[in-house]
Design brief:
- By secondary structure, this protein is mainly β.
- It has two helices and 13 strands; from the N terminus they run ααβββββββββββββ.
- The strands form two sheets. The protein has a five-stranded mixed beta barrel. The protein has a five-stranded mixed β-barrel with strand order 7-9-10-12-11.
- Strand 2 and strand 3 form a beta hairpin.
């Protein structure tokens, strides 16, 4: 093959790669159809389709359920079940199902179908005061910084929980058993930075870390 033919093939391959990589972003930006923000405005029991980047993995919230969370720009939502799909953080997924509430409050989708569309960058956690973890942040990744103001409570078999306060009011941090995060080095009085899913359980708002590096003890 001559040099011109080789360059043409290389150029075509590069163009196709760009097109493939652009697909998840294009799907996420497609507007109300599949929009998490739109779905969150619908009444409970509505059938919705949402598209977003997975911010937690299948089984991360086990043994509560086998679900995961997704986020579209600044808005997220919880998916109650993975339907046997091995969803990983960073995958772009399209979920169709019924809008419901779980864990005593967190808005969720009970899925009937899940489709992996590709991969994309995971949204950066939104810095928020501990006293501002609320319905306004529910569903998305957040980051808090403050002092552990309670004992580390063993909530077997579900995980561990404790409270963090930056002076604006305490919020609960819940470390689900499914994450495998080791909390043995944590204790009351430590200054910490914690990021994770902004959730709700029995009317109480909380932050749920996903990976060990989501909990950082400050010097």
């Amino acid at each position: 093959m001559n040099k011109a033919g080789t360059q043409w093939k290389v150029g075509l391959a590069a163009l196709l790669a760009v097109v493939v990589l652009a697909v998840p972003g294009a799907v996420l930006a497609k507007g109300p159809h599949g929009s998490i923000a739109e779905a969150r405005q619908q009444p409970l029991d509505s059938v919705v389709t949402v598209v977003g980047v997975a911010t937690s993995f299948t089984g991360g919230f086990f043994p509560n359920d086998n679900g995961f969370a997704i986020q579209e720009k600044k808005v997220g939502i919880y998916i109650l079940d993975s339907l046997d799909a091995d969803i990983q953080v960073g995958q772009v997924v399209r979920v169709t199902g019924t809008l419901t509430q779980s864990f005593g409050g967190v808005l969720s989708v009970a899925p009937t179908s899940i489709e992996v569309l590709g991969t994309a960058n995971v949204p950066q956690p939104h810095p928020v005061k501990t006293g501002d973890v609320s319905e306004e942040t529910e569903g998305r990744l957040v980051r808090i910084k403050g002092t552990i103001v309670s004992d580390i409570e063993d909530d077997f078999p579900y995980g561990f929980k404790f409270e963090v306060d930056d002076g604006t009011g305490p919020t609960t941090v819940f470390v689900n058993a499914g994450t495998g995060i080791d909390v043995s080095g944590l204790e009351q009085g430590q200054r910490v930075v914690i990021q994770g899913f902004s959730g709700e359980f029995l009317g109480e708002y909380e932050v749920d870390p996903v990976f060990p590096e989501d909990i950082r003890v400050l010097p």
